[in-house]
Amino acid sequence: AEAADLVARYPRDPRAHLYRGIAFLIDGHDYADAEEQFRRARATGDLPGAGLDPDFDKTVTVLLALTVADERRPDEGRALGAPLCGFADEKLPDLADGLRRYGICGD
Known about the structure:
By secondary structure, the protein is an all-alpha fold. The chain has helices at 2-9, 14-28, 31-43, 54-70, 74-81, 85-91, 93-101. Helix 1 (2-9) runs antiparallel to helix 2, helix 4 (54-70) packs parallel to helix 7 (93-101) and helix 6 crosses helix 7. The protein is globular.
């Protein structure tokens, strides 16, 4: 509910869409809606202007890659996530494990 409120109050803030996407995954395993929110987070607003560094977009892209892979679209998941394997290994080790499980990143 809080994530939905954030999106309603700040529809152009990419962080609101990130939180909403995560809520869809955690609360209901709603991958289609999570995917939509992650795509909006990547497309919404000016990341540097919002005080966000490039790691924000990379993190959202890793989550998007995992989401589409879980939706049985492995090629799209690989296309999104494979360029970020090193980033995920360094900064998002739990998500990097998921990237390996889905065959997006090597062993």
